[in-house]
Amino acid sequence: MPDVKPTPTRRPPPAKLACDDQTVAVRVHAGSPKVRPHVVPISGKTAPLTKQDLITSFIVVWQPQPPPPPLWIRFLQEAPFGTQLIRAQDLRWDGKFLSIELLNEPDIEAYAAQMPNWVDYANTAIAQCEKSPAVLALKEAEKRAAEIENRLRR
């Protein structure tokens, strides 16, 4: 029988490589999370249910403001720090909210404590995209355009 080696899964390139001349930095804030309970019956249990037949989890949700571009979300989810259990890559993005389902309060508190660090990381990473020649040229042109407009108003 031939020796078959598993093929490694291909990871997408690091987000920093995805910066292009059109990437514009935006400073995003996430604020405090909203925590909502989620109660479901234990698998296989049917009515009549008792309190012991139910599992409670919590949906923890952050709403970034202003709405971040996809590259910012990618930077946040690729943040290279956290723990084995508290990882930015586990956060889900639905286009409006970042969320995660958790079972206990210490995990909720750990994610809430780590979120500002992940947000800072994503803000810093996307700000570095602004160093592309096209973005720098556009910023300079915008400044010159504003000066021309001010001069013409006199």
Could you explain how this protein is built, in words?
By secondary structure, the protein is of the alpha+beta class. It has one domain. The chain is built from three helices and four strands, in the order ββαββαα. The chain has helices at 70-77, 105-129, 133-153; strands at residues 34-41, 54-62, 92-93, 98-102. It has a four-stranded antiparallel β-sheet, with helices on one face. α1 crosses α2 (105-129). Mean pLDDT is 84; it is low at 4-13.
Average pLDDT, to the nearest integer? 84
Report helical residue fraction: 25-40%
Tally the helices. 3
The beta-strand count equals 4
One letter per element, helices H and strands E, the order comes to EEHEEHH
Poorly predicted regions: 4-13
Percent of residues in β-strands: 15-25%
| Integer count of domains | 1
Sum up the overall morphology in one term: elongated
Indicate the structural class. alpha+beta
Largest beta-sheet details: 4 strands, antiparallel
The first-to-last residue Cα distance is 85 Å
Q: Please, what is the oligomeric state?
A: single chain
Rounded Rg: 22 Å
